[in-house]
Amino acid sequence: MTVIRQEDFIASVAGALQYISYYHPVHYITSLAAAYEKEQSHAAKDAMAQILINSRMCAEGHRPICQDTGIVNVFLKVGMDVRFDSELDLQAMCDEGVRRAYLDPDNKLRGSILADPAGARKNTRDNTPSVVNVELVRGNTVDITVAAKGGGSEAKSKFVMLNPSDSVVEWVLKTVPTMGAGWCPPGMLGIGIGGTAEKAMLLAKRSLMDDIDIQQLIARGPKNRAEELRIELYDKVNRLGIGAQGLGGLTTVLDVKVLDSPCHAANLPVAMIPNCAATRHAHFVLDGSGPVYLDPPSLEDWPRLTYDVSKARPVNLNTVTRAEAESWKPGEVLLLSGKLLTGRDAAHKRMTDILNRGEKLPVDFKDRFIYYVGPVDPVREEVVGPAGPTTATRMDKFTRQMLAETGLLGMVGKAERGPTAIEAIREFGAVYLMAVGGAAYLVSKAIRGSKLLAFEDLGMEAIYEFDVENMPVTVAVDSKGTSVHNTGPAEWQQRIAGVPILQ
Asked: Which of 54, 333, 396, 501 could be stapled to 421 by a disulfide with Cβ–Cβ 3.0 to 4.6 Å?
Protein backbone atom coordinates (compact mmCIF):
# COMPACT_ATOMS: atom_id res chain seq x y z
CA MET A 1 0.00 0.00 0.00
CA THR A 2 1.30 3.45 -0.97
CA VAL A 3 1.59 6.03 1.80
CA ILE A 4 1.10 9.69 0.79
CA ARG A 5 2.45 12.10 3.37
CA GLN A 6 0.56 15.27 4.17
CA GLU A 7 3.49 17.60 3.52
CA ASP A 8 4.25 15.98 0.15
CA PHE A 9 0.64 16.52 -0.94
CA ILE A 10 0.51 20.15 0.24
CA ALA A 11 3.90 21.09 -1.19
CA SER A 12 3.06 19.56 -4.56
CA VAL A 13 -0.25 21.42 -4.82
CA ALA A 14 1.36 24.71 -3.77
CA GLY A 15 4.21 24.26 -6.23
CA ALA A 16 1.86 23.48 -9.10
CA LEU A 17 -0.26 26.55 -8.39
CA GLN A 18 2.79 28.79 -8.39
CA TYR A 19 3.94 27.14 -11.63
CA ILE A 20 0.67 27.73 -13.50
CA SER A 21 0.45 31.32 -12.30
CA TYR A 22 3.33 32.28 -14.61
CA TYR A 23 3.74 29.43 -17.13
CA HIS A 24 1.17 28.96 -19.85
CA PRO A 25 0.91 25.38 -21.11
CA VAL A 26 3.19 25.04 -24.14
CA HIS A 27 0.32 23.64 -26.23
CA TYR A 28 -1.59 26.87 -25.64
CA ILE A 29 1.35 29.07 -26.64
CA THR A 30 2.09 27.16 -29.84
CA SER A 31 -1.60 27.21 -30.81
CA LEU A 32 -1.98 30.92 -30.09
CA ALA A 33 1.25 31.71 -31.96
CA ALA A 34 -0.07 29.82 -35.00
CA ALA A 35 -3.36 31.74 -34.81
CA TYR A 36 -1.42 35.00 -34.52
CA GLU A 37 0.56 34.23 -37.67
CA LYS A 38 -2.55 33.59 -39.78
CA GLU A 39 -4.73 36.36 -38.30
CA GLN A 40 -5.76 39.04 -40.80
CA SER A 41 -7.63 41.38 -38.45
CA HIS A 42 -5.24 44.09 -37.28
CA ALA A 43 -7.10 44.62 -33.99
CA ALA A 44 -7.20 40.90 -33.19
CA LYS A 45 -3.56 40.45 -34.16
CA ASP A 46 -2.61 43.34 -31.88
CA ALA A 47 -4.49 41.73 -28.97
CA MET A 48 -2.87 38.33 -29.52
CA ALA A 49 0.57 39.96 -29.70
CA GLN A 50 0.02 41.53 -26.28
CA ILE A 51 -1.07 38.19 -24.81
CA LEU A 52 1.99 36.40 -26.24
CA ILE A 53 4.41 39.13 -25.12
CA ASN A 54 2.82 39.16 -21.68
CA SER A 55 3.13 35.37 -21.44
CA ARG A 56 6.85 35.41 -22.15
CA MET A 57 7.39 38.24 -19.66
CA CYS A 58 5.57 36.24 -16.97
CA ALA A 59 7.55 33.08 -17.74
CA GLU A 60 10.78 35.03 -17.42
CA GLY A 61 9.77 37.15 -14.42
CA HIS A 62 7.75 34.52 -12.51
CA ARG A 63 4.76 36.83 -12.03
CA PRO A 64 1.08 36.11 -12.73
CA ILE A 65 -0.21 35.92 -16.31
CA CYS A 66 -3.41 37.65 -15.21
CA GLN A 67 -4.31 39.79 -12.21
CA ASP A 68 -7.24 37.43 -11.68
CA THR A 69 -5.28 34.48 -10.35
CA GLY A 70 -8.45 32.42 -10.28
CA ILE A 71 -10.53 30.14 -8.13
CA VAL A 72 -8.65 26.89 -7.60
CA ASN A 73 -10.17 23.66 -8.91
CA VAL A 74 -8.55 20.39 -7.83
CA PHE A 75 -9.40 17.10 -9.54
CA LEU A 76 -8.25 14.05 -7.57
CA LYS A 77 -8.19 10.42 -8.64
CA VAL A 78 -7.29 8.56 -5.47
CA GLY A 79 -6.15 4.96 -5.82
CA MET A 80 -7.94 2.59 -3.47
CA ASP A 81 -4.58 1.14 -2.42
CA VAL A 82 -3.43 4.49 -1.05
CA ARG A 83 -3.23 5.51 2.59
CA PHE A 84 -2.75 9.11 3.71
CA ASP A 85 -0.36 9.92 6.55
CA SER A 86 -2.16 13.14 7.41
CA GLU A 87 -3.91 14.98 10.20
CA LEU A 88 -5.93 16.89 7.59
CA ASP A 89 -8.64 15.66 5.25
CA LEU A 90 -8.36 16.06 1.47
CA GLN A 91 -10.20 19.39 1.36
CA ALA A 92 -8.02 20.82 4.11
CA MET A 93 -4.80 19.59 2.45
CA CYS A 94 -5.82 21.16 -0.84
CA ASP A 95 -6.70 24.42 0.92
CA GLU A 96 -3.37 24.49 2.73
CA GLY A 97 -1.63 24.08 -0.63
CA VAL A 98 -3.67 26.98 -2.01
CA ARG A 99 -2.94 29.12 1.04
CA ARG A 100 0.78 28.48 0.80
CA ALA A 101 0.87 29.23 -2.93
CA TYR A 102 -1.21 32.39 -2.83
CA LEU A 103 0.67 33.93 0.11
CA ASP A 104 4.13 33.14 -1.28
CA PRO A 105 6.11 36.37 -0.65
CA ASP A 106 8.19 35.93 -3.82
CA ASN A 107 5.11 35.74 -6.05
CA LYS A 108 2.05 36.68 -4.08
CA LEU A 109 -1.17 35.86 -5.91
CA ARG A 110 -4.47 37.71 -5.63
CA GLY A 111 -7.04 36.58 -3.11
CA SER A 112 -10.32 36.60 -5.04
CA ILE A 113 -12.52 34.29 -2.94
CA LEU A 114 -15.35 35.86 -0.95
CA ALA A 115 -17.12 34.13 1.92
CA ASP A 116 -20.86 34.65 2.55
CA PRO A 117 -21.47 35.07 -1.22
CA ALA A 118 -25.09 36.24 -0.89
CA GLY A 119 -24.32 38.45 2.12
CA ALA A 120 -21.28 40.35 3.29
CA ARG A 121 -18.98 38.88 0.58
CA LYS A 122 -15.88 39.22 2.75
CA ASN A 123 -12.55 38.31 1.16
CA THR A 124 -10.92 35.25 2.75
CA ARG A 125 -7.52 36.84 1.93
CA ASP A 126 -5.79 33.56 1.01
CA ASN A 127 -7.98 32.39 -1.90
CA THR A 128 -9.40 29.47 0.07
CA PRO A 129 -11.46 27.39 -0.03
CA SER A 130 -10.70 25.53 -3.23
CA VAL A 131 -13.21 23.46 -5.20
CA VAL A 132 -12.22 19.79 -4.84
CA ASN A 133 -13.56 16.88 -6.91
CA VAL A 134 -12.60 13.35 -5.83
CA GLU A 135 -12.84 9.99 -7.58
CA LEU A 136 -11.86 6.68 -5.99
CA VAL A 137 -10.18 4.51 -8.62
CA ARG A 138 -8.17 1.30 -8.80
CA GLY A 139 -4.45 1.71 -8.15
CA ASN A 140 -1.87 2.91 -5.66
CA THR A 141 -1.22 6.52 -6.72
CA VAL A 142 -2.95 9.89 -6.40
CA ASP A 143 -3.52 11.57 -9.75
CA ILE A 144 -3.89 15.35 -9.33
CA THR A 145 -4.91 18.08 -11.74
CA VAL A 146 -4.94 21.65 -10.45
CA ALA A 147 -6.45 24.58 -12.30
CA ALA A 148 -6.89 28.26 -11.50
CA LYS A 149 -10.08 29.38 -13.25
CA GLY A 150 -10.52 33.09 -13.94
CA GLY A 151 -13.77 34.73 -12.91
CA GLY A 152 -14.32 36.34 -16.31
CA SER A 153 -14.48 33.02 -18.11
CA GLU A 154 -16.29 31.24 -15.29
CA ALA A 155 -18.99 33.93 -15.45
CA LYS A 156 -19.80 32.88 -19.00
CA SER A 157 -20.61 29.25 -18.08
CA LYS A 158 -23.86 28.03 -19.63
CA PHE A 159 -26.22 25.14 -19.05
CA VAL A 160 -29.36 24.01 -20.83
CA MET A 161 -31.65 20.99 -20.66
CA LEU A 162 -32.43 20.41 -24.33
CA ASN A 163 -35.07 18.11 -25.71
CA PRO A 164 -33.58 14.85 -27.01
CA SER A 165 -34.37 15.90 -30.60
CA ASP A 166 -32.69 19.32 -30.28
CA SER A 167 -29.35 20.18 -31.87
CA VAL A 168 -26.34 20.73 -29.60
CA VAL A 169 -24.56 22.58 -32.42
CA GLU A 170 -27.44 25.01 -32.89
CA TRP A 171 -27.56 25.77 -29.16
CA VAL A 172 -23.80 26.41 -29.00
CA LEU A 173 -23.83 28.69 -32.06
CA LYS A 174 -26.79 30.61 -30.65
CA THR A 175 -25.23 30.90 -27.19
CA VAL A 176 -21.58 31.82 -27.87
CA PRO A 177 -22.40 35.29 -29.28
CA THR A 178 -24.37 36.09 -26.11
CA MET A 179 -21.26 35.46 -24.00
CA GLY A 180 -19.54 38.61 -25.19
CA ALA A 181 -15.77 38.90 -24.86
CA GLY A 182 -15.48 38.77 -21.07
CA TRP A 183 -13.99 35.26 -21.32
CA CYS A 184 -11.00 36.73 -23.20
CA PRO A 185 -11.02 34.80 -26.47
CA PRO A 186 -9.23 33.15 -28.12
CA GLY A 187 -9.48 30.29 -25.66
CA MET A 188 -11.15 26.91 -25.43
CA LEU A 189 -14.76 25.84 -25.12
CA GLY A 190 -15.49 22.85 -22.91
CA ILE A 191 -18.75 21.05 -23.75
CA GLY A 192 -20.34 18.47 -21.45
CA ILE A 193 -23.20 16.39 -22.83
CA GLY A 194 -25.38 13.93 -20.94
CA GLY A 195 -25.53 12.59 -17.43
CA THR A 196 -27.51 14.91 -15.16
CA ALA A 197 -27.35 18.68 -14.77
CA GLU A 198 -24.39 18.63 -12.38
CA LYS A 199 -22.66 15.83 -14.31
CA ALA A 200 -22.78 17.80 -17.57
CA MET A 201 -21.21 20.83 -15.88
CA LEU A 202 -18.43 18.71 -14.40
CA LEU A 203 -17.77 17.08 -17.79
CA ALA A 204 -17.45 20.50 -19.40
CA LYS A 205 -14.99 21.68 -16.74
CA ARG A 206 -12.93 18.48 -16.87
CA SER A 207 -12.64 18.69 -20.64
CA LEU A 208 -10.74 21.97 -20.32
CA MET A 209 -7.92 20.13 -18.55
CA ASP A 210 -6.90 18.40 -21.81
CA ASP A 211 -4.22 19.68 -24.19
CA ILE A 212 -5.13 21.65 -27.29
CA ASP A 213 -4.99 19.12 -30.12
CA ILE A 214 -7.69 20.12 -32.60
CA GLN A 215 -5.32 20.34 -35.56
CA GLN A 216 -4.07 16.80 -34.93
CA LEU A 217 -7.70 15.65 -34.72
CA ILE A 218 -8.57 17.35 -38.01
CA ALA A 219 -5.52 15.76 -39.65
CA ARG A 220 -6.38 12.19 -38.59
CA GLY A 221 -10.17 12.52 -38.74
CA PRO A 222 -12.83 11.86 -36.08
CA LYS A 223 -13.44 8.38 -34.65
CA ASN A 224 -16.71 9.03 -32.80
CA ARG A 225 -19.57 11.49 -32.51
CA ALA A 226 -17.88 13.55 -29.79
CA GLU A 227 -14.88 14.11 -32.06
CA GLU A 228 -17.16 14.98 -34.98
CA LEU A 229 -18.81 17.60 -32.78
CA ARG A 230 -15.42 19.04 -31.82
CA ILE A 231 -14.44 19.62 -35.43
CA GLU A 232 -17.83 20.95 -36.48
CA LEU A 233 -18.03 23.38 -33.57
CA TYR A 234 -14.42 24.52 -33.96
CA ASP A 235 -15.12 25.49 -37.57
CA LYS A 236 -18.55 27.03 -37.03
CA VAL A 237 -17.68 29.00 -33.87
CA ASN A 238 -14.67 30.52 -35.62
CA ARG A 239 -16.94 31.46 -38.52
CA LEU A 240 -18.87 33.70 -36.12
CA GLY A 241 -16.02 36.20 -36.55
CA ILE A 242 -15.94 37.19 -32.86
CA GLY A 243 -12.15 37.08 -32.83
CA ALA A 244 -9.54 37.85 -30.19
CA GLN A 245 -10.98 39.97 -27.35
CA GLY A 246 -14.23 40.17 -29.33
CA LEU A 247 -12.72 42.65 -31.79
CA GLY A 248 -13.47 40.59 -34.90
CA GLY A 249 -11.13 38.14 -36.56
CA LEU A 250 -10.42 34.64 -37.81
CA THR A 251 -9.82 32.88 -34.48
CA THR A 252 -12.33 32.87 -31.64
CA VAL A 253 -11.52 29.40 -30.28
CA LEU A 254 -8.23 27.52 -30.33
CA ASP A 255 -10.00 24.24 -29.57
CA VAL A 256 -13.36 22.79 -28.61
CA LYS A 257 -13.49 19.89 -26.15
CA VAL A 258 -16.42 17.51 -25.81
CA LEU A 259 -17.01 14.90 -23.09
CA ASP A 260 -20.23 12.94 -22.88
CA SER A 261 -22.00 10.51 -20.57
CA PRO A 262 -25.16 8.36 -20.84
CA CYS A 263 -28.32 10.19 -19.83
CA HIS A 264 -32.04 9.68 -19.24
CA ALA A 265 -34.15 9.09 -22.36
CA ALA A 266 -36.20 12.22 -21.66
CA ASN A 267 -33.21 14.52 -21.26
CA LEU A 268 -30.32 16.07 -23.17
CA PRO A 269 -28.27 18.03 -20.62
CA VAL A 270 -25.65 20.28 -22.23
CA ALA A 271 -23.09 22.46 -20.45
CA MET A 272 -20.59 24.89 -21.95
CA ILE A 273 -17.70 26.43 -20.02
CA PRO A 274 -15.06 28.57 -21.71
CA ASN A 275 -11.41 28.80 -20.74
CA CYS A 276 -9.78 32.19 -21.11
CA ALA A 277 -6.45 33.52 -22.34
CA ALA A 278 -5.06 32.76 -18.87
CA THR A 279 -5.22 29.01 -19.44
CA ARG A 280 -3.85 27.61 -16.17
CA HIS A 281 -3.79 23.91 -15.32
CA ALA A 282 -1.21 21.26 -14.49
CA HIS A 283 -1.18 17.52 -13.90
CA PHE A 284 1.05 15.36 -11.70
CA VAL A 285 0.99 12.02 -9.87
CA LEU A 286 1.99 11.27 -6.27
CA ASP A 287 3.36 7.76 -5.77
CA GLY A 288 4.61 8.00 -2.19
CA SER A 289 8.23 8.79 -3.13
CA GLY A 290 7.96 12.46 -2.11
CA PRO A 291 6.62 15.77 -3.44
CA VAL A 292 6.39 16.42 -7.18
CA TYR A 293 7.70 19.65 -8.67
CA LEU A 294 7.06 20.38 -12.33
CA ASP A 295 9.96 21.05 -14.70
CA PRO A 296 9.94 24.51 -16.30
CA PRO A 297 9.15 24.63 -20.02
CA SER A 298 11.65 25.77 -22.63
CA LEU A 299 11.18 29.44 -23.50
CA GLU A 300 12.23 28.56 -27.03
CA ASP A 301 8.58 27.59 -27.53
CA TRP A 302 7.54 31.22 -26.93
CA PRO A 303 7.71 33.54 -29.95
CA ARG A 304 9.89 36.63 -29.59
CA LEU A 305 7.58 39.53 -30.39
CA THR A 306 7.85 43.26 -29.84
CA TYR A 307 4.84 45.50 -29.40
CA ASP A 308 4.76 48.22 -32.07
CA VAL A 309 3.24 51.47 -30.77
CA SER A 310 4.66 53.71 -33.48
CA LYS A 311 1.20 54.45 -34.89
CA ALA A 312 -0.55 54.89 -31.54
CA ARG A 313 -1.82 58.32 -30.44
CA PRO A 314 -0.29 59.64 -27.18
CA VAL A 315 -2.80 60.96 -24.64
CA ASN A 316 -1.97 63.04 -21.57
CA LEU A 317 -4.60 62.14 -18.96
CA ASN A 318 -3.68 65.19 -16.88
CA THR A 319 -4.69 67.64 -19.61
CA VAL A 320 -7.09 65.69 -21.85
CA THR A 321 -10.28 67.52 -22.82
CA ARG A 322 -13.68 66.37 -24.00
CA ALA A 323 -13.02 67.96 -27.36
CA GLU A 324 -9.86 65.85 -27.70
CA ALA A 325 -11.70 62.68 -26.71
CA GLU A 326 -14.38 63.39 -29.33
CA SER A 327 -11.69 63.13 -32.03
CA TRP A 328 -10.77 59.53 -31.14
CA LYS A 329 -11.89 56.95 -33.68
CA PRO A 330 -13.31 53.47 -32.96
CA GLY A 331 -10.47 50.93 -33.04
CA GLU A 332 -7.75 53.55 -32.67
CA VAL A 333 -4.85 52.63 -30.35
CA LEU A 334 -3.97 55.18 -27.68
CA LEU A 335 -1.04 55.42 -25.28
CA LEU A 336 -2.21 56.77 -21.93
CA SER A 337 0.13 58.76 -19.68
CA GLY A 338 -0.67 60.64 -16.49
CA LYS A 339 -3.04 60.10 -13.56
CA LEU A 340 -5.54 57.25 -13.92
CA LEU A 341 -8.13 56.42 -11.23
CA THR A 342 -9.14 52.83 -10.45
CA GLY A 343 -12.33 51.22 -9.19
CA ARG A 344 -14.48 48.17 -9.91
CA ASP A 345 -17.64 46.46 -8.63
CA ALA A 346 -17.47 47.07 -4.89
CA ALA A 347 -16.16 50.63 -5.27
CA HIS A 348 -18.90 51.50 -7.77
CA LYS A 349 -21.59 50.10 -5.49
CA ARG A 350 -20.29 52.16 -2.58
CA MET A 351 -19.99 55.32 -4.71
CA THR A 352 -23.54 55.08 -6.02
CA ASP A 353 -24.82 54.52 -2.48
CA ILE A 354 -23.02 57.73 -1.44
CA LEU A 355 -24.46 59.64 -4.39
CA ASN A 356 -27.96 58.33 -3.65
CA ARG A 357 -27.67 59.74 -0.12
CA GLY A 358 -26.78 63.13 -1.59
CA GLU A 359 -23.29 63.05 -0.12
CA LYS A 360 -19.98 64.04 -1.69
CA LEU A 361 -17.65 61.38 -3.08
CA PRO A 362 -14.15 61.10 -1.56
CA VAL A 363 -12.64 61.40 -5.05
CA ASP A 364 -13.25 64.02 -7.77
CA PHE A 365 -13.98 62.28 -11.08
CA LYS A 366 -14.64 65.36 -13.24
CA ASP A 367 -12.96 64.94 -16.65
CA ARG A 368 -11.02 61.96 -15.30
CA PHE A 369 -10.64 58.35 -16.48
CA ILE A 370 -11.32 55.29 -14.32
CA TYR A 371 -9.69 51.89 -14.84
CA TYR A 372 -11.71 48.82 -13.93
CA VAL A 373 -8.97 46.81 -12.23
CA GLY A 374 -8.19 44.76 -9.13
CA PRO A 375 -4.40 44.33 -9.20
CA VAL A 376 -2.15 41.73 -7.61
CA ASP A 377 -0.14 42.97 -4.63
CA PRO A 378 3.36 44.15 -5.57
CA VAL A 379 6.53 42.24 -4.68
CA ARG A 380 10.14 43.35 -4.56
CA GLU A 381 10.65 46.60 -6.52
CA GLU A 382 7.20 46.64 -8.14
CA VAL A 383 4.91 49.64 -7.84
CA VAL A 384 1.93 47.37 -8.42
CA GLY A 385 1.55 43.72 -9.37
CA PRO A 386 -0.04 42.48 -12.60
CA ALA A 387 -2.93 44.83 -13.28
CA GLY A 388 -5.01 43.80 -16.26
CA PRO A 389 -8.60 44.94 -16.80
CA THR A 390 -11.73 43.33 -15.42
CA THR A 391 -14.93 42.77 -17.40
CA ALA A 392 -16.53 46.16 -18.01
CA THR A 393 -20.13 45.00 -18.39
CA ARG A 394 -20.35 44.45 -14.64
CA MET A 395 -20.11 48.24 -14.28
CA ASP A 396 -22.81 48.94 -16.89
CA LYS A 397 -25.57 49.47 -14.33
CA PHE A 398 -23.50 52.18 -12.62
CA THR A 399 -22.37 53.97 -15.78
CA ARG A 400 -25.20 56.45 -16.36
CA GLN A 401 -25.15 57.74 -12.79
CA MET A 402 -21.37 58.02 -12.76
CA LEU A 403 -21.33 59.97 -16.02
CA ALA A 404 -24.30 62.18 -15.09
CA GLU A 405 -23.35 63.04 -11.51
CA THR A 406 -19.54 62.99 -11.39
CA GLY A 407 -18.43 64.39 -14.74
CA LEU A 408 -16.42 61.26 -15.50
CA LEU A 409 -14.96 61.49 -19.01
CA GLY A 410 -13.87 57.94 -19.77
CA MET A 411 -13.54 54.36 -18.63
CA VAL A 412 -10.97 51.63 -19.26
CA GLY A 413 -11.86 47.96 -18.98
CA LYS A 414 -12.06 44.57 -20.66
CA ALA A 415 -14.45 43.41 -23.37
CA GLU A 416 -17.65 45.02 -24.63
CA ARG A 417 -20.19 47.38 -23.10
CA GLY A 418 -23.91 46.64 -23.13
CA PRO A 419 -26.61 48.74 -24.82
CA THR A 420 -27.48 50.70 -21.66
CA ALA A 421 -23.89 51.74 -21.06
CA ILE A 422 -23.29 52.56 -24.74
CA GLU A 423 -26.34 54.82 -24.79
CA ALA A 424 -25.12 56.62 -21.66
CA ILE A 425 -21.65 57.02 -23.19
CA ARG A 426 -23.22 58.55 -26.32
CA GLU A 427 -25.56 60.81 -24.35
CA PHE A 428 -22.82 62.28 -22.17
CA GLY A 429 -20.09 62.37 -24.83
CA ALA A 430 -17.86 60.02 -22.87
CA VAL A 431 -15.59 57.24 -24.19
CA TYR A 432 -14.79 53.64 -23.30
CA LEU A 433 -11.28 52.31 -23.86
CA MET A 434 -10.39 48.62 -23.90
CA ALA A 435 -7.23 47.10 -22.44
CA VAL A 436 -6.36 43.52 -23.38
CA GLY A 437 -7.48 40.83 -20.98
CA GLY A 438 -4.69 38.32 -20.45
CA ALA A 439 -1.88 40.91 -20.63
CA ALA A 440 -1.81 41.94 -16.98
CA TYR A 441 1.95 41.89 -16.40
CA LEU A 442 2.57 43.83 -19.61
CA VAL A 443 0.05 46.48 -18.52
CA SER A 444 1.61 46.73 -15.05
CA LYS A 445 4.93 47.77 -16.58
CA ALA A 446 3.25 51.01 -17.71
CA ILE A 447 2.30 51.88 -14.10
CA ARG A 448 4.96 54.11 -12.52
CA GLY A 449 3.20 55.03 -9.29
CA SER A 450 0.20 54.04 -7.17
CA LYS A 451 -1.55 55.91 -4.36
CA LEU A 452 -4.54 54.78 -2.28
CA LEU A 453 -7.34 57.35 -2.39
CA ALA A 454 -10.43 55.77 -0.84
CA PHE A 455 -12.14 52.62 0.48
CA GLU A 456 -9.00 50.93 1.83
CA ASP A 457 -11.11 48.19 3.41
CA LEU A 458 -12.03 46.92 -0.06
CA GLY A 459 -8.49 45.68 -0.66
CA MET A 460 -7.82 45.15 -4.34
CA GLU A 461 -11.19 46.78 -5.10
CA ALA A 462 -10.26 50.08 -3.41
CA ILE A 463 -9.88 53.33 -5.36
CA TYR A 464 -6.28 54.07 -6.30
CA GLU A 465 -4.62 56.68 -8.45
CA PHE A 466 -2.13 55.16 -10.86
CA ASP A 467 0.58 57.19 -12.54
CA VAL A 468 0.84 55.56 -15.97
CA GLU A 469 3.22 55.99 -18.87
CA ASN A 470 2.36 54.80 -22.38
CA MET A 471 -0.35 52.35 -21.34
CA PRO A 472 -1.79 50.82 -24.55
CA VAL A 473 -5.58 50.85 -24.98
CA THR A 474 -8.03 50.70 -27.88
CA VAL A 475 -11.01 53.01 -28.41
CA ALA A 476 -13.82 50.48 -27.99
CA VAL A 477 -16.79 52.90 -27.75
CA ASP A 478 -16.31 56.41 -29.11
CA SER A 479 -18.16 59.52 -27.96
CA LYS A 480 -20.83 58.93 -30.62
CA GLY A 481 -21.62 55.45 -29.26
CA THR A 482 -19.99 53.36 -31.98
CA SER A 483 -18.76 50.06 -30.48
CA VAL A 484 -15.99 48.04 -32.12
CA HIS A 485 -17.36 44.97 -30.36
CA ASN A 486 -20.45 45.34 -32.54
CA THR A 487 -18.86 46.45 -35.81
CA GLY A 488 -15.77 44.18 -35.70
CA PRO A 489 -17.41 40.74 -35.39
CA ALA A 490 -20.14 41.72 -37.90
CA GLU A 491 -17.49 42.69 -40.45
CA TRP A 492 -15.40 39.57 -39.94
CA GLN A 493 -18.35 37.19 -40.00
CA GLN A 494 -19.06 38.49 -43.48
CA ARG A 495 -15.41 38.22 -44.52
CA ILE A 496 -15.13 34.64 -43.29
CA ALA A 497 -18.31 33.41 -44.98
CA GLY A 498 -17.45 30.74 -47.51
CA VAL A 499 -13.70 30.80 -46.74
CA PRO A 500 -12.00 27.59 -45.48
CA ILE A 501 -10.54 28.27 -42.01
CA LEU A 502 -10.17 24.84 -40.42
CA GLN A 503 -6.37 24.86 -40.79
From this structure: 396
